[in-house]
Amino acid sequence: MSLDALKAALPEYAKDLKLNLGSVIGNNDKLSQQQLWGTVLATAIASRSAIVLRELEPEAKANLTPEAYTAAKAAAAVMAMNNVFYRTRHLLSDPEYGTLRAGLRMNVIGNPGVEKVDFELWSLAVSAVNGCGQCLDSHEQVLRKAGIERDVIQESFKIAAVVQAVGATLDAEAVLAQ
């Protein structure tokens, strides 16, 4: 499978997802190729859907430099940790947790091996999949300070939304077919 095969695998009731998958990935003119495919790879990992990751990873790898490929995977990894940690601190009713030192290593954020803006877009998209408002705000602010327009930022979380939905739909269909 590939992007086209994923679209073909979607059931008729998910026609909107099929169309959206084609537009956010196949016809995206707001993101650079590196931003686009890094976002696709990072959100495919974050979606936790083996089907989506297996089908989108080869295209992402083919469209990314080895450094960008590794950085997109690193964004998914570090944000998987950070999203749980910061979302939990935010959700706890005791504000004192917010004053404590995190004590978690996240060096890759400071030195991702690619343009900082690209890594921030990927981190924001993964945070959207994982539902961490504090991380979303943090990455959005960094991107806005770097001069990135809202429509570009929105593209990253549109990709996140569609990739997540495609994964949920195809995973459910696989279970229902058993």
Sum up the overall morphology in one term.
globular
Work out the number of β strands.
0
**Range of strand content:** under 5%
The structure class reads: mainly alpha
Descriptors for this entry?
single chain; 178 residues; mainly alpha; AhpD-like; 0% strand
Summarize the structure.
The protein is mainly alpha-helical and 178 residues long.
Structure description:
The protein has 178 residues and is mainly alpha-helical. It has one domain: AhpD-like, CATH 1.20.1290.10. It has nine helices and no strands. The protein has helices at residues 3-9, 15-26, 33-47, 50-63, 66-91, 107-110, 116-130, 133-145, 150-176. The longest helix has 27 residues, at 150-176.
What's the layout of helices and strands?
Layout: H1 3-9, H2 15-26, H3 33-47, H4 50-63, H5 66-91, H6 107-110, H7 116-130, H8 133-145, H9 150-176
Subunit structure: Homotrimer.
Protein name: Alkyl hydroperoxide reductase AhpD
Disulfide bonds: 132-135
